């Protein structure tokens, strides 16, 4: 049973991944539609980042995580190297949790 | 670039370790835990599947996981030929496609730089996730809580940092902000995966409007937009 769950999930997920990649070749898209594809990807990534920053299991994730993400975004805005963006975000969240912020 | 990938890779290693530890603690055998990271390779779906399988609902685990991963199809469409010229590149590369890999790749200018970014990020993050899972399986409860290290803030911050430059483009900025707002607002109401897909509504509206424009123009010829552009298309 377990192996069936893993294989079904793996096959379906690979199907989504490879379908998008291979479809791109088959579809003869006009220039404006090709330009829209990265816009769609950016919208998805922004939605993912926002829901991951703010929510946990369908509810508010608490203040520590969004505060850390906000610090990371401000650092990125100031063009601080990416490594420090990641460390700054995680460090802020860790510090706030250490201080008892949920 | 390598240093940037390694930074996010280190966070993925730690989260992978917590996945390994959580899966073993939930009663999953070692082989199943390692296989899941290697052949499914999708963090969110893996945590969800472990929880639902442990709760005795394997069918829900499959359906919920696939709903969560449907976003990879539009990611694949956007990446397209960044994976390489040959079919085998695309078949193998497709397995390495994740949110983070997509963000790293699209942050580069189109062409060779994008292909190099895809394979560098794709390979290293895959290795980090699987090495992390192995560590978690071996160390079990000794793996610290990733929440205490604030690692849940690392990936969203990294994704937004990679997106920032592209937000200078007006269409992208509007799509990203409206998509994020829509997804967050829908999260308490819809099953996981769907809220994020709602973010495609903005770009889809733009697409539908553009698609209907040429046919409208031939009939109505709205004043401001009739330049050289539509006449060339409309006549043939």
TrEMBL record, chain A:
<dbReference type="InterPro" id="IPR008407">
    <property type="entry name" value="Brnchd-chn_aa_trnsp_AzlD"/>
</dbReference>
<keyword id="KW-0472">Membrane</keyword>
<keyword id="KW-1133">Transmembrane helix</keyword>
<keyword id="KW-0812">Transmembrane</keyword>
<feature type="transmembrane region" description="Helical">
    <location>
        <begin position="39"/>
        <end position="61"/>
    </location>
</feature>
<dbReference type="Pfam" id="PF05437">
    <property type="entry name" value="AzlD"/>
</dbReference>
<feature type="transmembrane region" description="Helical">
    <location>
        <begin position="82"/>
        <end position="100"/>
    </location>
</feature>
<protein>
    <submittedName>
        <fullName>Branched-chain amino acid transporter</fullName>
    </submittedName>
</protein>
